Amino acid sequence: MSVQDKRGLLKLAFGVGSAAIATTIGWPVIAAFLDPLARKAVGDARPSPYAKLGDLPVGAPRKFEVVSNQMDAWDRTEQRAVGSIWLVRAAGDRVSAYSGVCPHLGCPIGFDQDKRVFACPCHDSAYAVSDGARLKGPAARGLDPLPVEVRDGTVHVTYKKFIQGIRERKEG
Amino acid sequence: MRLLDWIDDRVGYRRLSRTAFEEPVVGGARWAYVFGSALAFLVLVQVVTGMVLAMYYSPSSREAWGSVHYMTHEVRMGWFVRGLHHWAASAMIVLLVLHMLQVFVYGAYRKPREFAWWTGIVLLLTALAFSLTGYLLPWDQRGYWATRVTASIAGTLPWVGGSLKLLLQGGSDFGTLTLTRFFAMHTLVLPVVLLGTLGLHIAIFRIRGATPHWSRGEAGLTRATEPFWPRQVVYDVLFSALVLAVVAGLTLRYHGAPLEAPADPSSNFPARPEWYFLWMFELLKFLPGAWEGIGILAFLVVCLAALVLLPFLDRGASSAPKQRRVVLSVGIAMLAGIVLLTVTARRDDARDVAFLQQRQEAEAAALQAFSLARLGIPPGGAEDLYLNDPVERGKRLFAVQCRACHKAQASGGDSAPDLTDYLSHAWVGGLILDPNRPAYYGRALPATMPATDATADEIAVLTHYVLSLGGVASADARGATAFEDNGCSGCHAVREGESQRTGPTLAGFGSRAWLRGVIMNPAAPEYFGAANRMPAFGGRLSDSEIDDLLTYLFSTRSAAKR
Questions:
Q1: What is the pLDDT of residue B559?
Q2: 3-state class of B347 per DSSP?
Q3: What's the rounded Cα separation, in Å, for the pair A49 and B342?
Q4: What is the Cα B505 distance to its own chain's centre?
Q5: Which residues are within 8 A (CB) of B373 and not within 5 positions of it... i.e. 6 or more apart?
């Protein structure tokens, strides 16, 4: 075997050895690091009662805490506030519910009493009380509506989480 | 290549890599030199895997176990990363011993390489400190008890013991402050010490170079001298790959790293340290109580002093082992002693029936904890995992509410029926035979119901019949006849809505509904009536608490024997 061949063989051994090491450590480490990609945010599976229809004033939005049992990583949380929703009762008995999360970048939506609009305190997006449509600001879409049911005079809402910053309304 | 030239012009990395790779290895590349490089490689493995583990770990006594369980059972490949970290720690100890042995036999600690040796000793102690701090982090039974023992040993030292123990555990007792302290040590303090000392160790080593084999002459060494790259680098890489293969193999073989049930200060756990501390554990058995701390400390100080002073003790002209017989035999004898103590500790455990029994119980407890942890860790932390299990909840309730009068599973009072195996075929058979024995209603009710003179076969038929009323056994036509013939129907109703008799109703006997009724109001006319002495629990316990109690009581009922 020539000196050249020997050197080539050594380099090959080096390459194979290093590649084996890099794969054995790199693959599990990267897989574990990327684990969050496989996990999805979950809202409530079933509707929960929030208010008596009669207690909701017509045209004036009311904010409610979403209290639910959820898993926070390995922890089971019991009856903990996980978000907020807005309920708006229009004339008649039609009730709309919106997620309290701004669809722009996730700040908490408030209600501006003077201008009578939903307003985001972060980047000045504003949304209509009547249908949640975007009135101004950088948000890509209007407020995210939530499924509402009125059963026996009680308003039930199913809380969901949506992806922010995109035009499309997608759960996640 | 012009980009690389441009970078090199500015930072001069080529000079750096030349220094690193073209360093001459006196006497040429050798397999004997691979241990140090493999150790440096394992440090890298620990750093990389440790970073990922830290992303999932939570250092608090409520959280730690749940987080480790999560990274092991939920995170994709998390078990493998944790396994690599665990087994690489063990491999590091093995390699440290091999590395030191090679240095020892070659006389590489001798003048002028004393500082390489001393920094090496610091690295050894750092590695052991890593192991000690890391062992506790999962906050499982194993780490909890082993570390408590260590802290207690420290606590027995004269003068400083008490303070040392407080400093170790970070507070007056073992808990979250211990974990935050150990975690900070393990992930911040010790890594800085390790990387700093390792840099120094390698730099000092580079100045004097490797110690060639004692038999090789000056001329031969010079002739064989070659640069670090490629041959020595390839030897190092191949050996490191082999070490990693063993570590990964162990990880696969044992499916990651061990995890016991969550730390439980009230439990009975056979504490053992990690295998490389077993020799000290064994040594403790020979030291009388009061001398444990001081004995271990004195022993360690002597060992450490011997290691530190070794370069001064071994100053002969030649490094050939033949000229260093005394030093080598003392060193080998100490290593042999450590191996012997380790083997003895292992062998004693393997022969100890009580230990094996406790190990089995610990493994069962761990499996139960894993299955309960799938429902999430309760707000009270992993110690409260049993709250996920109705049987465990019921058992706790029984201990508080019922145990003063009733016995179950061999513990409790005896003024009321023994509820072990309650409402099973065997229990009911015994009841029919003679209800007035102390284990039944002898101390709880007046002897209204007589003992029977029925045959064993008849009793079996009766037992089967009354249990069929609650759906616990299948119906049997002979039963109803025997019930009539033995005069039972004179006192006991068997169907819902049947007119009330003097004895308890047997409608639904042995079912959850029947027992729920008894627990809620035992003095009701359809149960024990005026003779009853048991309190009514209808107002005391909630429906779901009674449910848990029923689940617990029925969980002790053995399956029917025909």
A1: 60
A2: helix
A3: 64
A4: 50
A5: A74, B66, B69, B73, B382, B385, B388
CA dist., res. A22 & res. A18, Å (int): 6
In this prediction, residue B295 carries a pLDDT of 85
Rounded Cα distance between B411 and B401, Å, is 14
Phi, psi dihedral angles at B327 (to 5 degrees): -60, -50
**How far apart, in whole angstroms, are the C-alpha atoms of residue A130 and residue A63?**
15
Q: Are B321 and B214 in contact (CB under 8 A)?
A: yes
B69, B230, B238 member nearest A74 (Cβ)? B69
The CA–CA distances, whole Å, from B226 to B30, B218, B233, B375 equal: 11, 15, 12, 61
- Contact at CB, A29 and B48, closer than 8 angstroms: yes
CA-based nearest distance A37→chain B, Å:
10
Contact A33 B52 (CB under 8 A): yes
Pull the structure tokens for residue B151: 């802290």
Distance CA B212, CA B261 (A): 50
Backbone angles phi, psi at B395, to 5 degrees: -60, -45
Which pLDDT value is given to residue B261?
94
- How far, in whole angstroms, is CA B261 from its chain's centroid? 6
Contacts of residue B145, Cβ cutoff 8 Å, sequence gap at least 6: B263, B269, B271
pLDDT value at position B562? 38
Tens digits of per-residue pLDDT, B490-541?
Answer: 899 998 888 878 889 999 998 999 999 999 999 999 999 989 999 999 989 9
Radius of gyration from C-alpha coordinates of chain A: 26
* Selected residue of B237, B255, B375, B388 to mutate for chain A interface (largest A Cβ count, 10 A): B237
Which residues of B are less than 8 Å from A76 in CB distance?
375-379
pLDDT tens for residues A109-125? 999 999 999 999 999 99
Interface of A with B (CB under 8 A): 7, 10-11, 13-14, 17-18, 20-21, 24-25, 27-29, 31-35, 38, 71, 73-78
Distances (CA, A) of A162 to A48, A99, A132, A137, A149: 18, 9, 15, 19, 20
How far A75 CA lies from chain B's nearest CA (Å)?
Answer: 5
Calpha distance B344→A24 (Å, rounded)? 35
Contact call for residues A120 and A126 (beta carbons, < 8 A):
yes
Is the distance from CB of B239 to CB of B40 less than 8 angstroms?
no
Residue B203 CA to residue B52 CA, distance in Å, equals 29
The confidence score (pLDDT) of residue B339 equals 95
CA B449 to chain centre: 53
Preferred mutation among A4, A11, A25 to probe B, highest tally of B CBs within 10 A: A25
Successive 10-residue mean pLDDT values, chain B, 562 residues: 92 90 90 95 98 97 96 97 98 96 94 95 97 96 93 88 92 93 98 97 91 87 90 96 98 96 88 91 82 84 94 89 92 94 95 93 92 90 87 89 89 90 91 93 91 89 91 83 89 86 90 93 92 92 93 79 42
Cα distances from B68 to residues B54, B56, B127, B134, in angstroms, run 10, 7, 22, 12
Q: How many CB atoms lie within 10 A of CB A24?
A: 19
Decide if B376 and A38 are in contact by the 8 Å CB cutoff: no
pTM: 0.83
Count of beta carbons in the 10 Å neighbourhood of residue A87 = 21
The answer to whether the CB atoms of B66 and A75 lie below 8 A apart is yes
Q: Would the CA dihedral through B18, B23, B24, B30 be positive or negative? A: negative
Instruction: Enumerate residues 6+ apart whose C-beta is below 8 A from A70.
Output: A42, A77, A80, A82
Strands A154-157 and A48-52: antiparallel
Check CB contact under 8 Å for A76 and B45.
Answer: no
Confidence of residue A2 (pLDDT cuts 50, 70, 90): confident
